[in-house]
Fold OmpH family outer membrane protein.
Amino acid sequence: MLQSKHGKLTILLGLLLTAFWLAPVAAHAQSKIGVINMEQAVNDCKQGKRSQAELRRKAAKLEEELKQLNEEVAKLRKDLENTAMLLKPEAKLAKEREFERKARRLNDRRRDAQQEVREAQRDAFAPILRRMQGIIKALGAKGGFALITEARTALYFPQSSDITSEVIAAYDKKYP
């Protein structure tokens, strides 16, 4: 009789422990998780495409400017190499200084151009990213998501969890 009560108590305790351990698993099984490729979302929305086109125009303009400066430096170098033996020391020194000045100007302009492109990228995409976060929060709340994460940080996710295209569509609808 005592063994029977002890056996029933053990079984009941085992059932309670099993239910306690399985409850979080059942809760996680019902949790909805979304994954977004943020880079794709920012680049593929309409505003992102327009910003990229503007950045390409700006980069092409800067590349053309750098190409002209590079050609001027190359021409000075070639001229200096060809005429160095024929020039008086003062004239040769003046040409070397002119070459060094142009080469420094080219390097400075190249560094400035890289900085300009980085700043233009930041200025173009930061507002999109900020608005995109609002869209994601609204989609998460409306869609009942427990978690939405960046695709690059997830080690695995089923393709059905990818909501990037939904985020892009919602962004384009709100910010055409």
